[in-house]
Every structure is written in C-alpha cells, then in structure tokens.
Give the backbone structure.
Amino acid sequence: MNTMLAAVLHDFNDLRVEEVPRPQAVDFGQVVVRVKSCGICATDYKAIKGIRRNVKFPCIVGHEPSGVVAEVGPGVEHFRIGDEVIVMPSGFCGFCYNCRMGHTHYCEHSYTTGGDGPEDVRPGAFAEYMLVEQQALFHKPPTISFDAAALTEPLSGAWKGVIQYSELKLGEDVVIIGVGSIGLLCLMVAHAAGAARLVAVDISDYALENALRLGATHVVNPAKEEAKARIYEIIPEGPDLVVEAAGSIEAVELMVDLRRRGTRWNVFGITTHEKFELDGGLTHFLEGRMDASFGTTPLAMSQAIRLMETGLVDTEQVISHRFPLTEIHEAIEVLGTSTRNKVIINP
C-alpha cells in the first residue's frame, strides 16, 4: 500500500485522521517502522490545543513510539524487517562539538520526529508508519510489551534527571512535586534507586493514590494542607533532593522554598518562560545545587530499557487509557481530565 492512516494537525484544534502517503526508506540509513504504540505527551496535547505555538502546519505529532521494522533502506546493518523496536525521537548528527562531547541532545543539527524543541520537526508517530534514522532505533526486549516500550522516552528522561544529573543516592530523602505520568516515572526511578522517605506532592487525590501504589512513602496535597510544614514533619532535616515535575511556576516556587543546606533541586517539569525569585545570599549559604533536564540521549534510552527489562520499573503501571488511532480525538479529551495518567494510541 502506498498510503497510510495518520492524525494530521492542520491548525490548532484542527486534527484530522486521514489517508496520507506512506513513507519509504529511500536514503542511506533510513528505516520505516510500523507503529504499534505511541504515548501522548503533554507537549503533543499542547500543540494540538494551541497551548504551545511553535508548530508548523501540517504536521504529525507523537514522539513516544514502539513498533516493528517494516522496511529498511540502503546501509542499514543493525535492523531487519520484523524486528521489534523502540524509537528515540531525538535525532543528532554525531559530528558537531556537542555530539562529540556526548551531549547529543544539544546537537547543532538536531531534529525530532513528532516532538518539540528543534527547528527540524519531522512526521511523528500518530500514524500507521513513520520514517526514522537507524541510529534512533533500539531493539525492544521480547519481555516488554509495545505499550510499555512506548514509555521508554519519558522513562529515559526521568532516569536522566533523577539519576544522571541529580545523582540520587541510596537512602536519600526525595520530594517529587507533581505526580502525573512523568512525575510517577521520576518517583518509580527514585524508588528503584533506594530512596528512603519518598514524598509525592500533588493537588489531585487521584494522582496521590497512584503515587502511593507505585512507591511513595508519604503524600501531601497543597490544596488541603500547608505543604512545606507537612513535608518538614515527614523529613525534619529537610529533603536531599526535590524534583519539580508539575510544570507550573507554583511548583517551582514550592521547590525553592523547601531547600535546606545541601538540598539538590531539579527544574524538570516546567517548560514555559515564567520567572521566579531567588535570594542570592540565602542560595549562596544553603550551598545547594540546581539541575534541570530535558530531552533524552542514547545512554538514557539504554538505561530506561534496562530498568524495564530487569523489572525495576514497570511502565505498564502508569498507563491508564488506550485508544485506536481512529479515536484519537477522544484520547485527547481524556488527556485534559484529572483522572488519567499516560494515554496510549495504538495505530
């Protein structure tokens, strides 16, 4: 077949499921993947709803896919038709200064398949097929379902932020602010890494119930209690690490307020350009360390796959809804509700 079904975004709030040309692996290193599962990220939702405006139309979004190799182009040596694979959405050249320094997500010639960030945005995974470069593919272990594998990219971001950048150590006390799907993945990584007291903070009781189910030792709802006071009752010495995974300026402000001497804090969730204040002298004498984390890398993807394959993190536990591609409009509406976690599209 020369055509496929895809959800094409023609304008903000104008998403159409329609027949489009099926991609072909013509150039060196290209691979066509038959998409089996794709998670809906908050950035996808924001693009469709017009909350983020850096979108060029028409486009196919969706950047958390797993699938099966359907076609390989010239020069593809590591993958064959029929291989079950996981797709990393972040493409890189491998030759620029940043790539050679190991920071492939800083690549000066970066692109994304269906994602956000670079100027070069290629068709994504809310479609039956997608075209990728072979360096973006990872073999899916047979013990991991396609749906679970679709969460590799967000899990890799959680590992990168919590473990690689903020360097969580065994026995440390951790606060996760915001426990939607990405916050839950951060929480599950922290739990697997041996966090002692693991406090989940959210204004949704539904989210906090999920956090307790997935490893939180305590939960705090700022809508019902004074968050800092309650957290310091749980952790009298104050947290070793605070991860902001909510995406709101209020969450960032709470994170700043929770610091004691030596607290590490990671601005992980917020992507909007909002400002918050820091007391310079206090920040100096607290001698804490601020990190942030965005995107993913081949190392982070590989570590995420290892976490799933060994059973340390079960990403199936974060999935709340599944929809076929033809019902993507219903899926988008569910994403805007308070009683959901990760929503999966199965083309």
Notes: The chain has a mean pLDDT of 96. Residues 152-165 form the longest helix (14 residues). The domain at 155-292 is CATH 3.40.50.720 (Rossmann fold).
